[in-house]
Design brief:
Elements: H1 2-7, E1 10-14, E2 17-20, H2 21-28, H3 35-48, E3 54-56, H4 59-67, H5 71-78, E4 88-94, E5 108-114, E6 119-123, H6 132-142, E7 151-154, H7 167-185, H8 203-222
Parallel strand pairs: 3-4, 6-7
Antiparallel strand pairs: 1-2, 4-5, 5-6
Helix pairs in contact: 3-7, 4-6
Length: 228
């Protein structure tokens, strides 16, 4: 009981994301990332690249886009996201299909929409594009809300993971590359997009990034609390 309560201990509130002690354990070891860590880093990227043009969708919302059984309730859910005015949308894709199972699934990938090039690009770090079906489901549901006729494509140059647990870190690394690309030259590279920048995402860089995220969280935990 003590171990469970320790793992559940809240260690950081960052924007709307609450991290727990167990999240540090996930980052410390060779473990599959959970929703909270991905949501935290997406929120961090949103702070690094503040723009109304960019939307990094939390995993729970991307999951509901894929699995919501009621089109009317989905419409109420989607409208506040203002997808029709976004220039860049990043959606984490999970292979869980069970709405009753929290933290389900066994693989993460990333679906990116770029309005300037009118395309959704799916980045899957598995060798067999395990999440293609799930990514296409999110694409089909999301497309009408973007006010575009964007096409879907699998990126053949997506960096590939070399183990069975780093897919989530690849999602975060690729998301960071795309945000950096958009902030520096995104509106000019309509044809080539961010693909040439993906060479930065290597197995060693992903390993470093896992440690960097852990250090980022610990740094934010140690930072003085501001009083409103």
């Amino acid at each position: 009981m003590m171990a469970k309560s320790g793992a559940d201990e809240k260690i950081l509130s960052y924007n709307d994301v609450v991290l727990r002690r167990s999240d540090l354990d996930i980052l410390n070891g060779p473990n599959y990332l959970n929703d909270r860590i991905i949501e935290f880093y997406f929120s961090y990227l949103s702070s690094l690249f503040p723009s109304d043009d960019i939307l990094l969708v939390p995993p729970s919302i991307a999951f509901w886009i894929k699995e919501c059984p009621d089109p009317e309730s989905l419409k109420d859910f989607m409208e506040p996201l203002h997808l029709s005015r976004r220039k860049l949308i990043l959606l984490p894709i999970n292979d869980n299909s069970d709405v009753c199972m929290a933290e389900g699934g066994s693989h993460w990938s990333l679906l990116a929409f770029d309005r300037n090039s009118n395309v959704f690009v799916h980045h899957d770090s598995s060798s067999g594009c395990m999440n293609e079906y799930h990514a296409k489901q999110v694409y089909k549901v999301t497309l009408p809300y973007t006010s575009s006729n964007a096409t879907y494509k699998e990126c053949p140059n997506t960096p590939k993971q070399v183990n069975g647990y780093d897919c989530g870190v690849y999602v975060l690394a690729i998301a960071r590359v795309i945000c950096q690309w958009y902030a520096s030259s995104g509106t000019q590279d309509v044809d080539t997009l961010w693909f040439s920048h993906l060479e930065q995402v290597t197995p060693s860089a992903v390993s470093v990034m896992r440690n960097d995220i852990l250090g980022l969280i610990k740094g934010l935990m140690a930072a003085p609390k501001t009083v409103a």
